[in-house]
Each structure stands twice: as C-alpha cells, then as structure tokens.
Amino acid sequence: MPQAQPLVVPADGLTTRQRRNRALLMVHTGDGKGKSTAAFGMALRAWNQGWSVGVFQFVKSAKWRIGEQSALEALDGVHAQTGAGGPIEWHKMGSGWSWLRRDADTADDYAAEAAEGWAEIKRRLAAGAHRLYVLDEFTYPMKWGWVDVDDVVATLAGRAEGQHVVITGRAASPRLIEAADLVTEMTKVKHPMDAGQKGQRGIEW
Amino acid sequence: MPQAQPLVVPADGLTTRQRRNRALLMVHTGDGKGKSTAAFGMALRAWNQGWSVGVFQFVKSAKWRIGEQSALEALDGVHAQTGAGGPIEWHKMGSGWSWLRRDADTADDYAAEAAEGWAEIKRRLAAGAHRLYVLDEFTYPMKWGWVDVDDVVATLAGRAEGQHVVITGRAASPRLIEAADLVTEMTKVKHPMDAGQKGQRGIEW
C-alpha cells in the first residue's frame, strides 16, 4: 500500500527523494507460478510512466510467453502511434536474438547464445538504453555456468543510474539474492497439475 | 514449462482435453510482492487469446494500480480499433464502481461498496460475461466480513463453465484456498523498504 513507511532510515547521506528513486535490482524466484508473470505486470507500470522497457527472454521455446509478448508489443505499437506510454522491446533467445538478425536455425548452441544475450545486456546497461530490463529465466544460464555469476553481480552493481532490473527464474544464486534490493519467492501451495490437469491456453501461455 | 506432465490422471470421466480446458479458480496470496502484478500479467495472456477480461479492484485509493489500469485500457483500445486481442474492462471501487455511474463522493461506505462489487460479479458469473475475472485485493472484504465467504466459495464452485477467476490479496481464507485449483504464495525474502527505501513511481504503481 502506498502509505507504508520504511522500517529504518539509513544514514547514507541521501535525501528521501534520492533514496526513493534509486533504481532497483529485483529477483522473482521460487518454485511457484507468477515469477515471470509479475515481471511482465511490472512492465505495464513502466510503460505507463513512458519508460523504455527491454525484455530479454532466456528460454528456447519460441512459443513460450507468446501472450505476454503479443500484448507488450501491442503496447509498444500504441506508443509508436500515439505517443502514450513508452517503447517496449522484446528479445527472445529461442528464435535467435533479434539484434543479431540471423537465421534462427543456426542458433543451436544454447550456452553461446545465452552468453551473447548477456553481452548485449551489458552493452545496453553501459549505454543506459532502458529504464526497466526484464531478464526472464535468467537464473538458469547463471546456474548452468553459461554466464559468470560474479560478472553479472559486478555489472549490475556498477550499472549506470536509473536502470531497474528484474530477474526471474528458479534457484537464484545466493550471490544474486545478496546483491538484490527486492527478492520475492513464489511458493507453490496448490497446482492443477497435481490434480491431473495439464496447462492450458490463455493461462499458461 | 509446457512439456510438464501431470503427476496423476484422475478417474473423473473427462478426456484430457476436457480436463485441460476446465476453467480455474486461482489465488495469489502471501505477504510478498507480485500477487496483483502476476494477476495483471495473466490478463496479457487472456487478451492475446481474445478473451473478455473483467478487472474488479477492491481498493479505496483511486491512484493505486494506475499504471496497470492505463496499460490494460490501452490494450482494450487496441482491441476496439483493430480487433486484435480481447476486450478488457476495469472497474474500481475507489472511485465508485463504474457500472453504478454515481458521484464518487457518495461512495464512502466501504463495506456496502464491496458488497455491491461482489453482487455485480455474481451477476456477471451467472451471465458468463467474462473468460477471466481478476478480483484484485478481494481477500480483504472476505476477511473483514464485507462479503460472505461461504457465498463466495459456493458461487465460484457453481459458476458457469469457461470462466477463470483469479483472486489476490494477503491472508486468503482457508475455505477459499481449499476451493481453489491453483494457489501461489508470494513470500518476501528482501524488500527495499527494510533498507529505508520508500515505494517509487513505475515500480510500486
């Protein structure tokens, strides 16, 4: 709720306003649903503020998240046509990163492709390209050693001002959690799959 | 992930397809962030499927969730203009329910207003008005006795086919959780407010 007050006021030499507007590193982890969905929901707020949003989807299935991608690209279209909201870019590893503009069929080395994605994000963070970065399912390339966890943490800690980053996925590295400002764990209490119901259109994708 | 398999196959006489497409009652609860944000993220998928989405926001602050509201209303506008996606209606208790069309200043009896909201949702569920209902912060009127928990659970259990419902808020009733198909608990691991940072534009609203 907006009226909530901080529990402590740190002696960091910042004004409340400066502290308030410090960009955040956020992590959505845990085994439950809603990690990525909540990150895409955040993109709605960012869009409404007119922010530039960059989504980087670190999964191999080209169909996965197609609903969120279509809707956020429609909002990007609204921005382009009317000036309302902000621009949203969606980059997907599964069909080859869009800035590389190569044949998707050549993108079969997942580790190399994940590393290429992270290298591009580093360039954008250095350039201050976006106000919100959604690094979807990025905990997995970190976990599998496709990107270096120390490099990720150091890069994010040293990023240029005013850039929010949200990272989603299970099993977030303890070093990432230590570096983050906001960490939420999504925990499964009950799932229809436990009762024999498979995922369905409009709900799971 | 889409390829996951159910743990059990129930002897309910339904085909896999019938079971798969059975509409869900979903609950996002817990003290962490992302409960509502994930529900609005789900609305993106529903929009992309061309579903009718009804959002019912059971909070009193007219400013709260303004980012999500603006973005989802923009998607409703895309649907109206181009036919892409589906229609999204956003109804907010804080400024008086939109179907009542009365002066917002008269809406100062929160309990009565919450009950009016639930009565309208019951009418829509009976009429099959939407394919996805987002009942945002609806656990609070349930907790505070403004709506009857048994009535809510019985109404949702008996609702017409093909209507998904997601309810968000802390402290969900055990009876609601029992009745739900999917329950996720959002748990706070770390929050910037603990370090003295207040909520900020684009992130909290």
Automatic annotation (TrEMBL), chains A, B:
Biological processes per GO annotation: cobalamin biosynthetic process
GO MF entries: ATP binding; corrinoid adenosyltransferase activity
Its Enzyme Commission number(s) read 2.5.1.17
Q: Which SUPFAM superfamilies match?
A: P-loop containing nucleoside triphosphate hydrolases (SSF52540)
The chain's coiled-coil residues are none
Q: Which domain of life is it from?
A: Bacteria
This protein's name: Cob(I)alamin adenosyltransferase
